Amino acid sequence: MKVNVLVIGSGGREHAITTALSTSPRLGELNVAPGNAGTIAHNVDIDVTDFEAIASFCVDRSIDLVVVGPEQPLVSGLADSLSEAGIRCFGPSAAAAQLEGSKSFAREFAARHGIPGPRCESFTSVESALKWLHDFDGRVVVKADGLAGGKGVIIPETRVEAERAIFDLLSARTMGDAGATVVLEERLEGEELSLFGIADGADVISLGTAQDHKRVGDGDTGPNTGGMGAFSPVPGKADIEPELVERFLRAAVSGMAAEGTPYVGVLYAGIMLTDSGPRLIEYNCRFGDPEAQVILPLLDSDVLELVLAAADGNLAKTDVKIVDGVTAATVVVAAAGYPTSPAMAIPIPEIHAPAGVSVIHSSTRVDGDQVVSCGGRVLNVVGTGTDLAAALDNVYSVVDEMRSDQLFARSDIGWRHAPRSVTGSAATAYAQAGVSLDAAAEVGDRIAGAVISTHDERVVAGHGSFGGVFDLASLSGLDDPLLVATTDGVGTKTILAEQIDSWEGIGADIVNHGVNDVLVQGASPLFFLDTVAAASLDATVVARIVGGMAEACRAAGCVLIGGETAEMPDVLSTGAVDVSGTMIGAVDRANLLPRTSIAPGDLLVGLASSGLHTNGYSLARKVLSGMDLHDPLPGDEDVSIGQALLAVHRSYLQPLKQALADDLISGLVHITGGGLVENIPRVLPEGCGAIVETSSWTWPPLFRFLVGLAGLHRVEAHQTLNLGIGMVAIVAPDQLDRAQQAIPEPTKVIGRVVKGRGVALASG
Ligand code: AMP
Ligand code: GLY
């Protein structure tokens, strides 16, 4: 008997599922709701959030089987609704989908059934979460409990970032109800692997291993995405796979059955291979996207028969064959601006893929007779080969033709197992001169994705053009717009970054420095241009720095519109990198800071710095020479000296947004080189000076340590370092309460404006 099928979903995963089902001789009518341009012949227009509409469609069209692609409908109970209506569904019940729908449920379930995971705990109050964090002796990951579209996992680099993430989720509710419970867990280190199984409530069969690449940029930089590329199987893991299937898949399926919530559908375990053994990162209740695109082509079994067997509880009698000696790989082609604000309606040209390669549609739709993009991940190029390198060669031969100023792809998918070399010319005159054009080409390839990922509709021309072109129509909301421009460098902080191999923060440092400099004039950042210069280019280092810049640009809502990477062997010394950049922002003339109203009696409100920011590094290096930067920081054993020194220069854009919008601030001072003493006078009117009460805050441990080592006098310290205050807001006394309430973090009044000039330090 033929089987009529309805597939729910609209991504690359669903196109891949549809493609796999299509080869079955048992297939009757095939419907996809809502589908994409790749499944256009099968698309049906049903509201997939309306479970009754789905059920009545199934009855009307004699659907024998519903295959659910994404997690949200499963967590919301689509499988339950269908089975109540007597319709066969492949996918877990809402109770079983809790394995993905609630991270705290999954952790507690794993603990009950001896499935190894990180040390962890769930919290609903900030206070108890902070207490656990304080007592925890290692690095942590902060997770929103509920579904958050891949954005619910925060991997903080420092304790302060972890605290902020807890506060954001539980108190500011930045992820809504998904973050009403927060899970804190030990940060696992190792290689990540995804293991897929198909379960029928009692039995489970492995569908193999895959590895995804979650970060948007090459070198695993930039923000998390839904996944930028994957391959299957993961080389060298065949011998541990049976054990992983037992410990992570069978244990879960048996456990769910024992608890009365049998699990039917795809079970996908994210596993970290740590030095002390494999550990569960998370369960997902469906195929991965883009992992389905590489798992399904390797199945040498009728996928429809397999899914029917699972839905009917017949897996014990079923065999799955996986093609031996073949690797499948996929690379995601994404829209400029993904993952923050992808460009839309990009026309997709017809693609002629050679044998062994296929193009799976993801966020695409048909508009007239043109296929256009309608989301971030647009297409997946899928290829096979005798090994990973061969599969990737096939995939990239097509991907390389598809890149444009609107479409980008990572160029290093598979890097852990099959690093791709960039082909280029042999010894050239440049090479003889010590400049490597290959390296320059490789750098270009590696940073393109990160750069383009910041772009949105304001960028008329960006990557690859001689000058970045920015559309001033985006300023149409300002009555009398002024542009504000600032340029700076991170200075010798890069030497420390090199010593402890920590580069991402350097990119964020220079962007945030620019953000803060335009902010003190009241302006919002628009676009940024950078320069990275080195004696000899290391493509990975440049990619990490630019990845950090791109991430910070996205966070600030500005675009990275141009830049320069310069290899200068005789100008710079070996190993050194110089990073600098220019930020342009805009402000309405009426909102320009500082205000002329600043007057004696106004208060100085201090906002905490995250560390040295971008100043004082020559001094720090001098006094620390010979010390081990990996040693714990005296006074704060949670961080090493190196981590504390490299803490990212924070941006004050978000914290000050509301107070600026409410016109509660008359002036801002970014505390850079010269400390409070030299920076505050820069915004005060003629005839005004300031008194800073030095006892109104305590110096953070890093500053106590450095000032002590350097033997600086208190006055010298205030003239050199920010000493824990990175930004000062000047506020009229009658606005103080409102201003402090509008700033969503603790602030301190550290002094006041007085008649006179300069800054006097008062204590006690
Ligand atoms: P998820 O959204 O749950 O897939 O998590 C996103 C990514 O965060 C995972 O792919 C991991 O790379 C990372 N991650 C999640 N939990 C941990 C953990 N406990 N330790 C280290 N990395 C983690
Ligand atoms: N690619 C990862 C996921 O689907 O969750």
Describe this structure in words.
With 764 residues, the chain is an alpha+beta fold. The protein has four domains: 3-90, Rossmann fold (3-Layer(aba) Sandwich); 99-104 and 118-324, ATP-grasp fold, B domain (D-amino Acid Aminotransferase, Chain A, domain 1, 2-Layer Sandwich), CATH 3.30.470; 434-592, 60s Ribosomal Protein L30, Chain: A, CATH 3.30.1330; 597-762, PurM-like C-terminal domain (Phosphoribosyl-aminoimidazole Synthetase, Chain A, domain 2), CATH 3.90.650. It is 31% helix and 27% strand. The chain is built from 24 helices and 35 strands. The strands form nine sheets. Strands 9, 10, 13, 14, 15, 16, 17, 20 and 21 form a nine-stranded antiparallel sheet that branches. A six-stranded mixed sheet has the order 31-33-28-34-32-35. The longest helix is centred in the first third of the chain and has 18 residues, at 241-258. The chain is elongated. The site of glycine has 7 residues, from loops. Adenosine monophosphate binds at residues 118, 141, 150, 153, 155, 185, 187-188, 192, 214, 224, 270, 281-282.
